[in-house]
Amino acid sequence: xxxxxxxSLVLALGLATGCASGGTAGTVDSGTDGGHAAGGxxxxxxxxxxxxxxxxxxxxxxxISIFGDASQDVGxxxxxxxxxxxxxxxxxxGAHDGSVDGRPADAxxxxxxxxxxxxxxxxxxxxxxxxxxxxxxxVGVDAAPPATVLFLGTSSTGVLAGTxxxxxxxxxxxxxxxxxxxxPVLTTLSNGTGVGAFTASTSGAVTATVWxxxxxxxxxxxxxxxxxxxxxxxxxxxxxxxxHLVYQDASFKFQYLAYSGGTWSASSQPVGGLYxxxxxxxAALGSNASVGFVDGTSTPVNSLASSDRVAGVFSAANDLxxxxxxxxxxxxxxxxxGPQLLFxxxxxxxxxxxxxxxGGTWSAxxxxxxxxxxNPVALAPLPxxxxxxxxRGQDTNLYWSLYSAGAWSTVAPFSGAAMLTIEASPAVxxxxxxxxxxxxxxxxxGAAYSSSLxxxxxxxxxxxxxxxxxxxxxxxxx
Length: 478
Known about the structure:
mainly beta; 3 helices; Neuraminidase; 34 strands
């Protein structure tokens, strides 16, 4: 395989929180994103088709009006627990007085001694009952925290982290002091923990952060800083307690790390010595995983392929017999029913195609009608074996489609008849609070916005924050 070199990316920017909930902001410098060079790979197959494809409209101007006014970006989560005790403690002490001391409620109870005994007994009985009920109510509240949508956005010198509850607004702020020239990645585990990662701008170190109900953890370099990647990593922990992470090292080989039981792998594990022209993707299969990639060792070269990690060992490459783009990474996700895996990739004609795996066997690949891109796609599993796809079209506008019952819905512009220009690949996740899905994207101003899908309608985008961001990631707790 001929070698390639990533081009330099120099981005200087400033993070602004855009948050009404009191998040803190960091400041960074501004610059430009130079993209990636194809290098020694056959760049002739990367010709753009803007003049011939139906999606290549000249309408590249963002329709700002779809974002609504500033009042939609201001708010705060509400809700108190102070009223719980009042609703529980409404006991009528008089109902107990007549019988607590075992005597009828007659004139004899008028004595001071009986009145004192009654008062003491009532206070003791009510206190025990009320404290018990309060404890039960508190346990119920603490044991069922609200669903949370998580967000990460990167610039070359900063990371923006955010959280949002259903019906609430985004709380966002700067996370650490290291940025990234590529997009971050983010997943959630079955216990509600969020695990994010990105490639540090200056060192290339794969850097991770963990979110719990207590907040975001300080970003740390994995394998003591020895895990060094040339582009964005991939991560997935869907449905399990292990977050599987795969990155591409300087020699274009794929390396594996895992987060389980509160700790990361001490060192990286080679993915069977496999390598390719672009970073790989990974799908969680409980404690096992499947890595999807473009195979630099295949014949023909750059075929779509997968490798399974079972009991700590990676299998040989399983080539699907379909040639993929050597400039756009693929995406692979697990499905909750029906096929086990869904694999989406871009071919060398910029067409988005897919395949599914059932019983260990991959289907033939098929094109998704009217779906063309030169950027990595966003793909996420949904309940019931469904999935959602979003991508930046060749005209730089945002498009999406739902996968259900083995078929894709008609690819549609994000905002309907209007077009929305985005600066990088979007990110998608399953929805919370009755929504089907969540999406985040970088609008033409460089700020991050989010929207929720209810039925087949996306909500008016709301500001998360940031400026001159180069990539975003979004995830939701189970």
